[in-house]
Amino acid sequence: MLADRDSPTPLAFDDDEDRDIGLACDGLGVEDEEEDDDSENVNRTGIGSHNAHSHAKRSALPDWLREAFNEYVLLSNHRGPDGLPPLYRDNKTFYFPRHSSYFILRDAPFSEYPNPAQLYDYAFFLWDPECLVQTGIPCPKCHTKLQRHGHIHCPRRFVDFEQTVWMIGYRYRCPTCLNPNSGNKTVTFRSWDQSILELLPKALAAEFPAHLSHRSGISHGLFMFMRSCFQHGLGAKQFADALCAQQLQRYDELQLQYSHFLLNSSTLKLALTGKKAELFPPFDDRSEKGFAGFVPGHQWLRDLYDSFIESHLQDFNQHTAMLTGEICAIDYSFKVTKQIAKINGIQVFVALLTVTNEKGEIRLCNLVASKSHLQFELALVRMQESLKIYGHASPLIFYTDNMADKEFLENAFPSLREDLVPIEKYSNLDPLI
Question: What region holds the DUF6729 domain (predicted)?
C-alpha cells in the first residue's frame, strides 16, 4: 500500500462497528442487537441509528466468509503506482469474479467431496472510491483531503434478489478534525457513509450498489423493484414474503445441484476413501460452516422506503408548488387518519384535506385536527402565493361538497368572484303574474 494513502499510525477506536454483519431485522435469520457506535467515527446516518449507545453481543463471521474476506482484502492491498487495486486496474469492475457451481463440482479432487460452502451464492463488492478520485475526497466537515486508513475489519452485507452481497470498505481519516470524545485527530469515515457518497462525482456515486440502513441494506435494483411493487398495490409484508421465497428457492437449487452431483459420485468415493459427504446446512445456520442467510422483514423494508421518501420531501414540495390550479376540487378523506397512531385512544387528526387540479394532480394535501376552515386557511394562502410565483392563473372554478365553503374559498381566491353572474333562485320557472 502507498505510504501517503495508508497511514501506518494505529488509531485507537472501537471495532464493534466493524464486527457488524448486518443481521438486524425481523425477517428470516437471527436478529442481531444494536451495538456501540464507533467512538472515532463521528458520522452516523441511516435508519435505526437512534440507539447508538446500547451494548450488545457481536456475531462472528462464518469461517468460509472470513477466509474469503481476508483473501480479497489481501489481494486488494497489492497496488501499483496509480494506487488502484488489481480489481479496478485489470478487471475494470467493482465485483470480484467467482467460479460457477458446475465448475466447482467438476474440478473437485476425486479423493474429497466438495465443501457445501464452496457453492454458496454470494458476491464480494470492493468499494474504495478514494483511489478513483484524482483530487481526493474532502472531509465532510472541514474539507481537508482525506487519507485512507486501512480496510474496515468486517464486510458490510446487503441483500439482492437471489444472493447476498458482501461489501469490502475502507476507512478515511481526516488529518485535521478533532474527535469530540478523545480530543485527538482520529476522526474517520467509512467509504459507504452517506456523507462520503454525496461528495463523489455523480458518475462514480452511481456505481454504489446498495441502499443501506444503520444495520443492513438491499441492492439498488431490488430497492427500485420494491418501489414499483409498492406503487402498484403490493404491500411490504407480501413483498418481504416474495423476497424470502426467492432467496430460499435459490438456496434449494444449489442444494439440489449438490445432491445430484453426490448421487453420481458418492458410491465410488465412499468405497475407495470411506469418507462421507457433508450435508447442506439450513439457510439461516449460523455455525462456522453455515450460510448465515438473512432476509429483511416487512417492517424494515417499510422503514427503508419511508426513509427514502422523507429524504426527497423538498423535491415533492417543490414539484407540488409548481403545478397549475385553474379548476380545483376540495375534499376530505377519513381513511388515512385511521392508520395514524392515536394518543390515549384519541385521533390527533380527523381528516386529510386534499385539493386536486384540472389534471387530477394533488395540488395541496394537509392533515387537519378538525373541519374548521382555520385548519387549512394558511395552506390555501400558500397555494395562491405559489401560483403567482410560477406564473400560473388563479383558480376559476372550485368544486366542493359543502356549500359552507363558498365564502371561505372566495376570500382565499378572489379570482373565483371575477365575471361571476349569480343565477336567480327558481329561474327555470315562469314568473307568477
Answer: 110-265
